[in-house]
Amino acid sequence: MAEEQRNSQQDVTNTPPNNKGGQKVTFNDQISILVDQPRPEFSHKYANAYTAQSPDHSCVAVVCELGTQPRVRWITQYTKILSDTVPKLIAAAVIVWPNDKTQRMVFVYEDVCGQPLSDVDTGFSMGWKAEHVQDRIVIPVLSLLRATNQVDLVHGSIRPSNLFNGGKAGGTSTMLGECLSYAGSSTQPALFEPIERAMAHPMGRGPTTFSDDVYALGVTAALFYRSKDVLRNPSEEDMIRAKQEVGSYAALLGDMRIAPNLQEFFRGALIDDPKDRWTMSDVEAWLDGRRSTPKQIARHKPASRPFEFAGKKFTRPKVLATAITRYPNEAAALINSDELAQWANRALKDMEMIDRIEGAGRLARDPMNKINAPDKIATLLSLAVDPDACIRFHDISFMPDGLGVLMADAYRREANMQPFVDILLSPIVTYWLSSTEKPYIDNLTISQKFDQCRNMMKNSQTPGFGVERAVYILNQEAPCLSSMFKHGFVRTPEDVVFGLNEACKQSPKPSRLLDRHIIAFLAERDRKAIEMHMFDINSGRPAQMYLGTLRCLSALQKRSNISKLPELTLWMAELIKPIYATFHDRDLRNEVKKKVDKIKNDGHLWRILEIVTDPNTLARDQALFAHAFNEYKGLRVERDNLTTRLQNPQLFGKRTGMEVATMVSSILAFIVAAGLIMVFLQNGGM
Amino acid sequence: MAKKKKDKADKSTEAEALAPQKKGGATWQIWILGTAGLACMLAFLPTTILLGIGLLPTFAALLMDPTPDRIKTLSVAAMNIAGLTPFLLELWTSGRAQSVAESFSIIAQPANVITIYAAAAAGYIIFYTISNLVSTFMLERGKARLRDVESKMVDLERKWGREVTGAVPIDGSGFPIDEDLD
What we know:
The complex is a heterodimer of chains A (about 675) and B (about 180). By secondary structure, chain A is α+β, with helices and mostly antiparallel strands. In chain A, about 50% of the residues lie in helices and about 10% in strands.
């Protein structure tokens, strides 16, 4: 699918507006998005929808906003859903959006949904008959949930404005809108989320579960069924408080008389405790017509006497926990007294809460947790009082498995990352996991991931580690958040290479190709491609750094069969100048540079790498350097010797001269003597 | 330190043990050689007289020679002996062989003495001339070699960089440790 997306990205053509029609974006040579025909009924906070055309279908294109986190990994599962209750996915691709020339993820669906059953999601009551609610909402959506469950997909966006009439007003062919163009249940108003998820930031709710979809369906059905809003369109905060105080069922339906066939569904779907909420088998039994006794909604019992905190009195622990997170300084004072534990003991008779409060106290006194102590204490205390709630720290609230998405969103918004650093370094998540049993959470996986993040934070100064790495560990869907890709949508290592090629078209060109985000992204998404080069890439020596970068990108280009990267190769040829210095021989450096210059327009990074790392050339250079080193050493000794001797020129060569003179004298004397003897003997003596 | 002291003590003990034997041996040899030499000198007294007077320049050179290994004396002695050769032959082959009178008669002739001493003087001249010529040549050759060596060093540094000089600390691959490679 990634390959398809990349190909289609290259095939995009933008047609400017003309007299005959509006502006079009065409991709895959088949599908045209009509930019001037928006479809607000399919648009949401993170994507805008437009009418689209394909040869066989009338379509709707949902174009994601820049920097959002669509559920690309779930595309395959979505296409396998055996149900007509969701629109069929025609195509998914990354395209260049003509208005701002940014890369956008686009999903093209069949345009079969029709009109939404409601334009708004909150503050309304339809008063539909029970049969209508059951036939047009509950049964179609539960059937869809059964189908999505079979392909291991959850929808995450069940709400009135995402339910459609299937193009037939008053008909029964209800359709549910798409669910791929946003992260998890980030588009859901808090009303449609169970209490613990509703308190979290929409981006920090974590992956949606089947149970959450059932709950959202319960709320949706309740809105269509009830004839009046007992809370009169409350704010999200008031709605959560009402749910905490009286439970979701009562907060939504009050004491309304409910038809027996729906009562079982509402009681199964709107139970606040996820352990008791309807499971797949309950849904299947209900759909098959097997009726059972409606589940009893447990009433939250208030404390026998109120607890006074920050000038207010609280009788419900969940409400108190929310207040504690709002008043961190008062919470810090509370940790040093035993008032809270006494209240838990005497007014709530909750022994587990006492243990949790003591545990929070021990962690709060740990010197390691002194930084931002009041915020941490408030978080720990709130979790001690309400262990089912999401983590609320400073100004962020999240479920631990949603922290990655929230962090990626914070990076996109260029928000302050310090609270996230504090969370990752603190024991808050561990405390949350250990505070109470959470059947809807994979404790082991989350625990391992956060341990991994903590290890990464220990080396936070080094690129590839730190908070950037934590984002990609915690969020498998996160695109690469490098500032070099702020106009792109980079979600695979191959996309990184293409993205860098695009970045090299800009001016000024990036002086460091692999920044902290790219290194962290590759380390998580394609460890093999970067791990062995990480030391070189992080080296302070330019030659080593660029060689590591070149090795990593070359490997990616070769392995992904990317034919050409012209801009990246050209710029790399400029950047790697320090690598020439890895050759000792200055003449060889020029020779290598000439070779690189000759092939730099070919677009193949690996060919440059082959030239600058040719083992024979390097070995020969090394051997010749060693020889030259020794030669220089010998010459230096000779020079020093000659210089010393030449400081006394009158003595230079004197000894040799004397020896030669003696030799000459001796030879001459021998010749003379021998001659005389011969002459003497020839004369027969005297 | 203690080991050094011990070694020193061992060596001195060894030297002390050998010293009386060496001294006694040398004395004995000198005595033998001296006696034999004296006997030879007395046996060949005319030759001894001719050599004693004819080799006076060599003896003078030996006394005043500042050169190491008495190298100048060798040069003078060689020519001095060459100058003395015909007169020694004359002495040994004359009818009055080994006659002290013959020795004195040869020496008494000024031409003979001049010949012998001129040969020794030639030895002096050869020594000074050749040694100066050779040392001057050596000096020039040394200067040229120094220029050549310095030029080669410059060439090596140009081709291989400062790291080849050994003046900068280098890593295992031969690159400067504290500097960027660019």
